[in-house]
Amino acid sequence: SSYGSYVRGTQRKVWINESDGITALVGEVWPGETVFPDFTNPECTSWWADECKLFHDTVPYDGLWIDMNEVSSFVRGSKSGCAQNDLNYPPYTPRILDRLMYSKTICLDAVQNWGKQYDVHSLYGYSMILSSKKAIEKVFPGKRSFLISRSTFVGSGKHTGHWLGDNAATWDHLRWAIPGMLEFNLFGIPYIGADICGFSDNTTEELCRRWMQVGAFYPFSRNHN
Q1: In 17, 57, 114, 175, which residue has its Cα 20 to 30 A from 76's Cα atom?
Q2: What is the end-to-end Cα distance of the chain in Å, rounded?
Q3: Which class in CATH covers the domain with range 4-163?
C-alpha cells in the first residue's frame, strides 16, 4: 500500500503482530484490510502523535474522537485465522457472541508490547487514550482540547470523555441513557453523553424534541440523528 500513515507505521514497526511477534496481524474494518496500532509500544505513541500533527496541518481539527478501539474487527481474529491454542480457545468460554473469544476482535495470541492480547485486550482503548492525549499535547501545545473514546478502562476519566455507544431512536433508549450516564460518573468518567435522538433507526419529531430537551443537561451533549 502507498498510504502514507501505513508506510510510516510499517517502517517504525508499530503494529500488533501475530503470535510469531513479527508478522503484522491483518483484520478488516471500515476501509477494508486493516492493521492495528500497538498503542502499548512507545514508538507507536510517537508515530500516532506525528500522524495526528500531519493530519492537523491539512485539516485543522479541534480534538479527537476515537472509536472501534475495543479493538474491533469485522473478521474473526485475523484474515489468516487464529491458531488452535488455549489463548484463542481457553478451557472456559463465556456465553458471548459466536461463543468465540476472538469474535469481532483480533486473535488472543496476538503480540503487543505489554503482552499477549489475551491479557491486555481490555486495555487497548485505554492505551489508545494515553497515546491520543500525547498526540493532543503535540498538536495543541499549551491549549485545552477535546478527547472522547468509545472503549474505556479504570482511570480513563482522568484523560478522556466517553459516550454510551450505538443506541437506537427509541423512547426506551432515551430513558436508559440516564442511568447509563449516572453509572459512568460512579466509574470516574464524568464527561459522558449519549447520541441524542439515537444513532440507528429513524427518529420522530416528538422523540427528538424531548431528547434534545433532556440532552441539554448531558455533560457531553450532541445530536446524532
Answers
A1: 114
A2: 35
A3: alpha beta
